[in-house]
Design brief:
Structural class: mainly alpha
Number of helices: 4
Oligomer: single chain
Strand content: under 5%
Helix content: over 70%
Shape: globular
Length: about 100
């Protein structure tokens, strides 16, 4: 198993969730399109370029790819675990900032 892909899932989910949480907590206006643009250009494109990985960043996408036959059992467990850990790490970082 390629551990750089698991790291990419963790870091991508961490950064994406952290930007989302910080934006919702500290922004006076909730402009959804602006937030999605920031997330796309700061997370998804660099991770795809740096890790050369087709990102999931979401357990539901990983599960869909598993049922489609694109992901194996071990990839399903590894990617979903790293995504959940990335989201928990983002939440923990927010609690440290407050």
């Amino acid at each position: 198993m390629d551990y750089t892909k698991i790291l990419a899932e963790f870091l991508g989910t961490y950064i994406m969730c952290l930007i989302f949480i910080l934006y919702l907590n500290y922004s006076k206006t909730y402009r959804f399109l602006e937030m999605i643009t920031v997330i796309f250009f700061s997370v998804i494109i660099p991770v795809v370029i740096f890790y050369n990985h087709s990102y999931d960043f979401n357990p539901s996408i990983t599960l869909m790819l598993y049922f489609n036959g694109t992901r194996t059992n071990s990839e399903l467990i590894a990617y979903t675990s790293s995504q959940l850990l990335g989201a928990l790490a983002a939440y923990s970082t927010l609690n440290l900032i407050k």
